[in-house]
Every structure is written in structure tokens, then in C-alpha cells.
Amino acid sequence: MTGIALVSLGMWTALYTPVQVLLAQQLETIDPDSKESALGLVTGIGALIALVATPLAGALSDRTTSRFGRRRPWLAGGALGTALGLPILAPQTTVTGVVLGWCVAQPSLSAMLAGLVAEVPDHVPVAQRAVVSAWVGATQPLAVVFGTVLVTVAVSGPRSGYPLIAALLVLCALPFLWSVEDARLPASAVPAVSWSRFLAGFWISPRRHRDFALAWLTRLLVQLGNATGTLYLLYFLRDEVRYEQRFPGREAEQGLLTPVVLYTAGIVLTAFIGGMVSDRLGRRKSLVTAAGAVIASGSALLAVRPTWPAALVAAGLMGLGYGVYISVDQALITRVLPTADNRGRDLGVINIANSLPHVLAPAIAAVLVTHLGGYPALFAFTSALTLLGAVLVQRIRSVP
């Protein structure tokens, strides 16, 4: 559990610090007049790559017969590829260069994610999965705080920030790779299969696997709400809340740290409590629904009161709800996977519901912010999506 928490922290830091801070800073310098569109373009293309790369890496890890196990080669290769790819972003001075640099790092991050999420059902009994999922999930917001502090306090700006995050990723991955053994898959256990059958395996019939399809859809809705609501947080504080006018002498990047810390504290507080309660009661759906309702209430508050005090309250609410959601929903998903032999592939398909929102969110958020009502419309949209996903969870039949 310590190892999986560390490697998760390193992976999420390498993903979220660029998206939340470094890319936003870099693109604001390169193209200040079109920073929203530029950030949407970069993150959208990266998410499109992840959309393909994560399930593909997961499926290939199911068939990996390395003496180091099925998942560890993908974790190690992903960490190394990301550590080599992130520094490429540092010297870029054009939007095209940033796009190309992010396209180098994103496939490696996807390979890491595919290997990591499959480790949970591979190693963890059903009765402990919500708690272990809490370790993986709680490190996401911790990574945002940790990465934000590193690139705004320890170092300054993208040029030194990207190499620092790359080095951190390797250091966090090493203990898990060194200490956790993967079961080795014998070559005789992997049947020969054509590429056409291999690719066809990614289609999981919603009719035959109804609960899996519902879990995928509800994850998509909640994550789309999360992606659209968090993409422009830095710009929201600067342009809507007018943080720098409210607090002369302070920059919006510094202000961003406060709601992020509140959000993170809420997640850490409830992720483990929610996981333990869910594992003890053996119930998942009711907790996911309640968590989604709390997240939606935070977004709704920002829609009606886009102010600094409201932003702090909303951050706390969304953190409290998301903490329960990330631990319990992930445990729920491991119960609706179609087969045990293809966990990497099936969890990769589930992770499309994590990646696809980051493809859709830039276009949706840009239209809402610039043409359809601004930030109040953006947060009303995120609230409605999250609540819809939370309610639909109740239609899953095979999980209590």
C-alpha cells in the first residue's frame, strides 16, 4: 500500500502539475490573447492520445510474459518514457512545440496508468479494494498540491519545473517496482490471436455486460463534470474572481494553492473513511450517489456565487464528495469487470471514461465560457453532469 501510494503520487504529479500549472503558465506567455483555446488544444490532444494508449497498454499488459511480471514492465517503461518526455516541453516557445512535447509524454503516462490500475484487482482482495483505491485516488489531489508547491515555491516556471517533476516521478516509482512482485504469466497461457480479434476485444457489449456499461457511463459523466470544472481554474481566479485585484501584490497562481489545499484536505479526510465504511458494509452504490450529490452542490455554488469566499467553500465541498467517490467507485468498478483474465484491457476501457472527458472538456468549456454565459454557465453544467452520473449509479444491479 505504501508502494502503490508513492508510485501513484509520482504519476499524478507528472500528469496534473503540467495540466494545472506549467502548461497554463507556458501558454499564457506564448499566446496571452488565446490562452484558453491554446490550453484546450494541448490538453485535448493529449487526452485523445490517452484515449487510445491506456486501453491498448492495458490489453498488452494482460498478454505480457516478461520474467518481471505482466504490469511492472509497463510501469517502469512508462515512468522512464515520461521522465524523458517532460523535459522536452521546457524550452518550447510555440503552441505547436508544446503540443508535440506533450504528445511525447502522454503515451508513457498512459502506459503507467494502465499498469497501475490493474495492480489493484491483481493483488487486493475484494473486501479491501475501497481502502486501497483510496490510496490511489487520494494521491491525485495531493499531487496537485505537491506539484503546485514545487513549481511555484521550490522552483520558478516551466523551464525548471518540468525536469523537477520528471525526476520526482522516477524516485516515487522505484520503491514499488523494487518491492512488489508481479505474478509471471507463462507464454503457454497466452493463446495466439490475430490483430483483428485483439482489437475486436476492446468492444464490450453493453447488452451482455449491462452493469459494466453503466459503470462506464456514470464514470464518464462525473469525470466530464470534473474536467470541465477544473480546466480553467487559474483563469477563473484571475478573470472572474479577480483575485489579483482583491489581493494586490499576490498572483493568481499563489491564490490557486488555497482552494487546492482545501480540496485536497477534503479528499484525504473522506477517501479513507469512505473506503473503510464501504468495505465494512459491503455497499458501494449509495455512497457513490451521496458523494456525487455533494460534488454537484459545490459546483452549483460557484455557478451562483463566483466569488473568492464561495470558491473556498466549494473547494471544501467538492473535496469531501470526491474523496468518497474515488475510493468507492473504483472498488465498485472492479466488481463489474467482464473477465479476470483481461483486467488490464477492461480497466483500460473504463479509463476511456477518464480520458474522453479531457478530449471533450476543452471544446465544451471554451464554448460555455466565451459564448454561453461565462463561468456561471460552466459550473452549472458541471453540477448537472455530476448529479446525473451519481443518480445513474443506482441502476447497476450486481453491486449492492
UniProtKB/TrEMBL annotation:
Main location (coarse class): membrane
One Pfam family, short name please? MFS_1
Presence of keyword Transmembrane helix: yes
Which compartments does it reside in? Cell membrane
Its membrane topology, per UniProt? Multi-pass membrane protein
Enumerate the transmembrane spans. Answer: 40-61, 73-90, 132-155, 162-179, 216-236, 256-275, 310-328, 349-369, 375-393
Can you give the residue ranges of the Major facilitator superfamily (MFS) profile domain? 211-400
Q: What is the lineage of its organism?
A: Bacteria, Bacillati, Actinomycetota, Actinomycetes, Kitasatosporales
Signal peptide limits:
none
- Protein's UniProt name: MFS transporter
Q: Which UniProt keywords apply?
A: Membrane, Transmembrane, Transmembrane helix
In terms of InterPro entries, this protein maps to: MFS (IPR011701), MFS_dom (IPR020846), MFS_trans_sf (IPR036259), Sugar_transporter_CS (IPR005829)
